[in-house]
Specification:
The chain is an alpha/beta fold. The protein is 40% helix and 23% strand. It contains 16 helices and 15 strands. Strands 13-12-9-10-11-14-15 form a seven-stranded mixed beta sheet. A four-stranded parallel beta sheet has the order 3-2-1-4. A four-stranded antiparallel beta sheet has the order 5-8-6-7, with helices on both faces. The radius of gyration is 21 Å and the shape is globular. The protein starts with a strand and ends in a 5-residue tail after the last helix.
Length: 411
């Protein structure tokens, strides 16, 4: 019988659908807990959908785990990881650490001792430094006065970060003292209620609602800026061991602190070693990612972030040792998996729909490997319809002119 992977996600994010397809191709029976209308259900991959309720996220995940009895729970976003960590703590108190719930969550995510570390930026960076991983100077900060003193010692530019945020949302690169203090106070402040309500009811994400109502401030950190290019690693791991990995240099991004839209495959021994050290130290299982800065001139890889869930490149099958879903299936099932050929020999990959949404006339859509899921036409059409629905008329006209050259079908 095929092992079951329960993909747990809290919002409508296209890469989660790509992951579900890749997991099904690897051999998993795929089920999901997600909001209504999620793009996963425009694929042939998912057997059943379990409802996600924005005001009872942990209960939603618990009900889905009870219903599906999965071999593995795979979070599709950072908020899902937080809910699963909280669910583990609830079940540990109620049923004990050896309960079925706790066991499946530790099998899926790794040692529970790692749970608080992956969401504390400074604790994680301190641990990485202990392991001999190259990291920029990072410090937890509570006040603007502490920020001023940190800048006096470490200089500018700097990166200001709010804990518990994701997707670049709580990150600012600052060039001046004035900018640093303004962005620090802005990111630290409790969320505006109108924004929290919009996020809750439109995006089905209630994580800002409590902090907004309770006027709770975010924990903050500052990190020394490393000049260079961004890089990212996607990793499959099992019981503290890396079983497959992909490394990329970021070529294009949605915006300065947003997600990548074009990546270039690279081999980097320092990134590989860093991932192996941290996976071993944290005793991780499942899927995760690491973000780096490749320093200009030296090409040293400075670790800047961990993503304790699947990343948007994790579905790519790029040959032996570089097929993350297949490696995870082999670890869970105990079966040997026949390695498939790489989907492309090109090193540069334009992620669909990310790069197409960023610029439908991008030359990367023609020159790079354009990662369109041609075997999932309903998923493509759903993405195109969503673009048309959200875009103003002049963007729609430009998109229609470039659909054929972008390599995407008309919806």
């Amino acid at each position: 019988m095929k092992p079951t992977a329960l993909v747990a996600t809290t919002y409508k994010w296209y890469p989660t659908a790509r992951l579900a397809v890749a997991l099904a191709k690897a051999g998993f029976r795929v089920e999901a807990v997600c909001p209504p209308g999620h793009p996963m259900f425009k694929t042939s991959a998912v057997r059943e959908r379990n409802s996600y309720h924005v005001f009872s996220p942990a209960d939603s995940f618990a009900a889905a785990i009870l219903a599906t009895k999965p071999d593995l729970v795979i979070p599709g976003d950072d908020i899902a990881v937080q809910h699963l960590h909280r669910l583990y703590e609830v079940k540990r108190r109620e049923e004990g650490p050896g309960s079925d719930f706790c066991s499946v969550l530790e099998r899926s995510l790794g040692s529970a001792q790692s749970f608080p570390i992956v969401y504390s930026r400074t604790a994680f960076m301190d641990l990485a430094r202990e392991e001999g991983v190259r990291v920029p100077e990072t410090a937890a900060l509570s006040t603007a006065n502490e920020l001023r003193e940190w800048i006096r010692q470490n200089g500018l530019p700097a990166v200001i970060k709010a804990n518990g945020t994701s997707g670049g949302e709580g990150v600012r690169i600052v060039q001046t003292q004035e900018d640093a203090e303004r962005e620090f106070l802005r990111l630290q402040a409790p969320p505006v209620l109108l924004r929290a309500l919009k996020r809750t009811f439109i995006n089905q994400n209630a994580t800002l609602l409590g902090p907004s109502i309770l006027r709770k401030r975010f924990n903050m950190s500052a990190q020394k800026f490393v000049r260079g290019s961004e890089a990212t690693s996607a990793v499959a791991c099992w019981k503290g061991r890396v079983i497959a990995s992909l490394h990329f240099e970021v070529m294009k991004k949605l915006d300065v602190t947003g997600h990548a839209t074009v990546v270039r495959r690279i081999e980097n021994a320092e990134m590989t070693e860093s991932a192996e050290k941290l996976v071993r130290r944290l005793n991780l299982s499942g899927l995760c990612g690491f973000d780096f800065m490749m320093e200009s001139g030296t090409r040293h890889a400075y670790l800047i972030e961990i993503n304790p869930r699947s990343t948007q490149v994790g579905h790519l099958a790029l040959g032996p040792g570089r097929n993350i879903p297949a490696a995870l299936y082999a670890a869970v099932s105990g079966e040997m998996v026949e390695e498939s050929a790489a989907v492309t020999e090109k090193d540069t990959i334009a992620l669909f729909p990310q790069e197409w949404l960023r610029d439908s006339a991008s030359p990367y859509l023609r020159e790079a490997y354009h990662d369109v899921p041609w075997d999932e036409p309903e998923l493509i059409r759903a993405c195109i319809r969503e673009r048309k629905k959200r875009a103003p008329w002049w963007v729609q006209r430009r998109t229609q002119r470039h659909l054929s050259t972008a390599g995407a079908p008309r919806g």
